[in-house]
Amino acid sequence: MKNKFIRIIQPLSLLALFLLDMSALLLLYLIIKRILSGVDFYSVCLIIIDMTVLITGAVSTRQLLKSGVKISEDKIEFTALDKDNLYSFSNIKKAEYHRDSKASFRKSFTDRYSSIIFYLKDGSVATVELGFTTKRTLNKIANEINKRTSK
Question: 104 and 87 in contact (C-beta within 8 Å)?
Fold first, then answer.
């Protein structure tokens, strides 16, 4: 089986970063129009602030697009996690997923997170929280894991 990379893009984060990038570009346009009419202290300060926002937005967008699941021949790696992000298929018995989509006003945001539950061969259970994801992405990840562990 060939290596795969499945992106885990949280829709709310993508929307927020898109708005940040677009507003920074709009501000850059307005600042350039102001600089063409005459350079002053405020326009220079605004261009410095806007460049900082543009760099922050670009780095954040790049990081968001890099987060996902790397699936290779013998292991799975969750790139958005800091530690305990690497699991070997030889240690996994099966994988399930959980995503709460029922309507409720009492649940917090963390109750809505998607998670993948690994049942390991030594009898232990490991859970990986993925954040807000779509059900299609979650299905794709779980199906790929189960297909590779059933060999």
Answer: no
